[in-house]
């Protein structure tokens, strides 16, 4: 019978257990790398220990807190790491002696200056058996087999902890077969040919369908408003009044001018019986009197238009009366709108960058800011061929749409987002339309 294998010394097992406990207690990859590079010294008595990650980037050097300085040795270590990455990856640790290895000239010179006779390379693998890190112990001779066996077992714990701290998530290395790739390409081609409907989003506002503009009937200053914003009014009810002080003064002057012209005409008529030259003045004075009466009638007509009535029933739509009081206005300047709240419509400002081909009758869905979860259906009734600049400084096409039915939530003045629908097209064109337009604009092609 063969003799049983000798068991490891209890002190060696306790030391390895302590190293495993420190590895599990590490809260970061940097802390784990520092523990690997320094805490294993009592077992191996190495000259130096180097810890590299999976990309062979130096993470820790024994005796250094952070290997971040650009000393000649660390600069040479970067070149040595590239050479270490080319060493064969076996099932266990690898001992490399400087005397037996075929070293490049630049590596041999640095080894002779900084490293001892050999190195012991210990590769670490994570829980998926993927390369996670590597530890290089610089030694004068190969390690004791008993210690080496325990360090190989310890390397499993180091690699597991490294994978948890660095990876954090399981890495999937699924590689489709040739038939799977072909099926994926066919599915992608069919998906690109899938018909979809073009659509675009644009800001929208609820407006009256047929609003009547109430403008200033003449030049003047607004004296008072008889209605409040959004107040229902009846036909003939006063909306606002202009200041009549100037017109009344002109009326008094014109009345006196008419009286003076009539007096001159009457005096000329009396003189015409015995004075032949006075007969010739009668026609001139009669024309002047008629001119003064016409001026008086025009002023009276203007004075009659000082109070502006509502031309029809509706709701007075304007912002604030205080914005108009005392403000001079010109003839034809818009003061307010008369709208029918039971007939709302929609005004859409479609940005030029999002413009799609739209026809009259195209469907629209309105999502009001006050009711973002419910949509109001409508259809396009008017499109514009010329873009305008919105108050936000955006070039957009103005669209008008009618709302289907009479939705109660579509109150005049509310804003939201409208989704307009165009014609049908392929999914590939729908996805690539904006990038292709930007590429053409950038390249000029």
List the helices and strands and how they pair.
Elements: H1 10-25, H2 29-39, H3 41-44, E1 48-53, E2 58-61, H4 72-84, E3 94-97, H5 105-114, E4 118-125, E5 131-139, H6 145-166, H7 178-192, E6 195-208, E7 212-215, E8 220-225, E9 231-233, E10 238-242, H8 245-271, H9 276-304, E11 307-309, E12 314-317, E13 328-329, E14 334-339, E15 344-351, E16 363-368, E17 376-382, E18 388-389, E19 395-403, E20 415-426, H10 427-443
Antiparallel strand pairs: 1-2, 1-5, 3-4, 4-5, 6-15, 6-20, 7-14, 8-10, 8-13, 9-12, 10-11, 12-14, 15-19, 16-17, 16-20, 17-19, 18-19
Question: What would you note in describing this structure?
Answer:
The chain is α+β, with helices and mostly antiparallel strands and 445 residues long. It folds into three domains: 10-166, GAF domain (Beta-Lactamase); 244-305; 337-443, Efflux pump adaptor protein, beta barrel domain (Elongation Factor Tu (Ef-tu), domain 3). Helices cover 37% and strands 27% of the residues. The protein is built from ten helices and 20 strands. The strands form four sheets. The protein has a six-stranded antiparallel β-barrel. Strands 2-1-5-4-3 form a five-stranded antiparallel beta sheet. A hairpin with a 5-residue loop joins strand 18 and strand 19 (395-403). Helix 1 (10-25) runs antiparallel to helix 2 (29-39), helix 1 (10-25) runs parallel beside helix 6 and helix 4 (72-84) packs across helix 5. The longest helix is centred in the middle third of the chain and has 29 residues, at 276-304. It is rod-shaped, with a radius of gyration of 47 Å. 20% of the residues are buried.
